[in-house]
Write a structure and sequence with these properties.
503 residues; alpha+beta; Arc Repressor Mutant, subunit A; Aspartate Aminotransferase, domain 2; Aspartate Aminotransferase, domain 1; 3 domains; four-stranded antiparallel sheet; 14% strand
Length: 503
């Protein structure tokens, strides 16, 4: 049996429709009693009827299909003639043969459950069951005021990145096409280690760096290496909601430790669970409240890990940006017992789709982390690592940080001033001294989720503070990002926000 894969070439036609998918195989069996032309005809017709091939999709010429199937052209010509006669195919002069556009487009709604009549929902793993229903965030494909986690895309040096990417493509070596090291590309690991030592006070060597697909994978890998199902883990309350998902999926028991003006309340954590296996913290700029953990709390947390033989997973979120003081040194740099797993990402400071982050691993755990990473996805992509390494080595990364720090500082100042002008002292602002977001605490008479839903049609992309809580009681509030919100849009955005709050 031979087969030919039909490629959807509609992207390259004048209509320029988006490439939807790769259509199924057309197969023939020379040993079958059914004539070859009949096999080809039925294969096309059946796939068109089922909606697998859709109107406007390009099909190969008779000569191409015959050559790929290694058969005479005559059966292909006969099959195509029949399909054209029945209206399944149509031809366009100078363009080729296509699935007829007159054929109705099939619905893309989810397929119905085809289990036994009366059967309940399909069985899935405990990992899948504990996660909330997936809903694509409304802000994923849109840009608007106050989005959280979005850097300044307009000021990213696209021309520089494009030039480095073009250079990489022109000089592509065969070794770049091979599988790579699960720990990542040596050049990038060296650049990251140098950057972390000099700017974040991290104690590390390149051999301790693992390149991952953003901070989310960093947490996932760390959880798989360090925590068994049922392990107790301190989490900040409120805290980063996607971190909560990873821990829940791993079967960990989350211990919600309150966050106050000094960061994670270590004394409260010890009362709640002194023998917890790990603590997940973002000490430099906590999400969502934006608190910086005090020196006292940092010392208490490190002392607890030593006594309890516990781990700290440090998410150095937004650490590059501080506006009222110098950047705060990492928690890992204060650790003398190798109990801190340090994680960070470039996606928050460069652009989200880059999906490159890193883990700094204690030396004696490197082999275990590498083994777990290899079992997950073998290795990171070579291209993004190589281009990023060059971007850092040539000084573009440092220049971008310096430039955006000034931009974000201006936006932060304008946002704080506009909030105070609009609301006075009615609502409390938290976390405005660092990072690219702040929190606006509302009274209990508000429902922050309702406000978020009402604001979205006006392209005001707010985040509800209450969604970040693991346990009650929860505060009502809004998390406002200013990283990708131009200064000129901030006053109008605050005016809209005031209208939604009825103030």
């Amino acid at each position: 049996m031979t087969s030919f894969l039909i490629f959807d070439m509609s992207t390259f036609r004048a209509l320029k429709k988006p490439l939807r998918r790769i259509p199924p195989l057309i197969a023939v069996d020379r040993k079958a009693a059914k004539p070859l032309y009949q096999q080809i005809y039925e294969a096309y017709r059946n796939r068109i009827v089922r909606g697998e091939l859709r109107g406007g999709e390009l099909v190969p010429s008779t000569r191409e299909l015959a050559r790929e199937l290694r058969i005479s052209r005559l059966p292909v010509v006969n099959a195509y003639s029949q399909l054209l006669a029945e209206g399944h195919f149509e031809t366009r002069v100078g363009s080729g043969t296509f699935i007829a556009t007159t054929i109705p487009t099939h619905s893309r709604s989810p397929l119905p459950h085809r289990g036994r009549p009366g059967a309940g929902p399909r069985s899935v793993s405990a990992c899948a069951r504990v996660l909330p229903k997936f809903e694509r965030p409304s802000w994923v494909e849109h840009l608007g005021a106050f989005q959280v986690g979005q850097p300044d895309l307009r000021n990213f040096p696209v021309e520089v990145w494009s030039r480095l990417l073009s250079r990489y493509s022109r000089q592509l070596k065969v070794r770049a096409l091979q599988y790579g090291d699960p720990m990542g590309l040596d050049e990038l690991r060296e650049s990251v280690a140098t950057y972390l030592r000099t700017s974040r006070g991290v104690r590390c060597e390149p051999e301790q760096i693992m390149i991952v697909s953003g901070s989310q994978q960093a947490l996932d890998v760390s959880t798989r290496v360090l925590l068994d199902p049922g392990a107790r883990v301190w989490v900040e309350n409120p805290g980063y909601w996607l971190a909560q998902h990873v821990l829940a999926a791993a079967g960990c028991r989350m211990i919600a430790v309150p966050v106050d003006s000094e960061g994670l309340d270590v004394a409260r954590g010890i009362k709640l669970s002194p023998d917890a296996r790990a603590a997940f913290v973002a000490p430099s700029h906590q999400y969502p409240l934006g608190i910086t953990m005090s020196a006292t709390r940092r010392s208490q947390l490190l002392q607890w890990t030593s006594q309890a033989a516990a781990w700290i997973i440090e998410d150095d979120y937004d650490s590059e940006y501080r506006y009222v003081s110098m950047p705060i040194a990492s928690l890992q740099g204060l650790d003398t017992r190798d109990r801190v797993i340090y994680t960070g990402t470039f996606s928050k400071v460069l652009f989200p789709s880059l999906r490159v982050g890193y883990i700094v691993i204690p030396p004696d755990l490197v082999e275990r982390f590498a083994a777990v990473r290899q079992s997950m996805d073998i290795c990171p992509s070579h291209a993004s690592q190589a281009v990023l390494a060059q971007f850092i080595r040539e000084g573009h990364f440092a220049r971008h940080i310096r430039k955006t720090r000034k931009v974000y500082e201006e936006r932060r100042q304008v946002l704080v001033e506009e909030i105070k002008r609009a609301f006075g002292l009615r609502y409390r602002i938290m976390g405005a001294s660092a990072g690219t977001h702040l929190a606006l605490l509302l009274g209990d008479r508000y429902c922050d989720r309702d406000i978020v839903m009402k604001a979205a049609p006006k392209r005001l992309w707010l985040s509800a503070l209450s969604l970040s809580y693991v346990a009650s009681p929860t505060r009502q509030g809004l998390v406002l990002g200013f990283g990708n919100t131009p200064t000129s849009q901030i006053p109008a955005g605050v005016v809209l926000l005031k209208a939604f709050l009825g103030a």
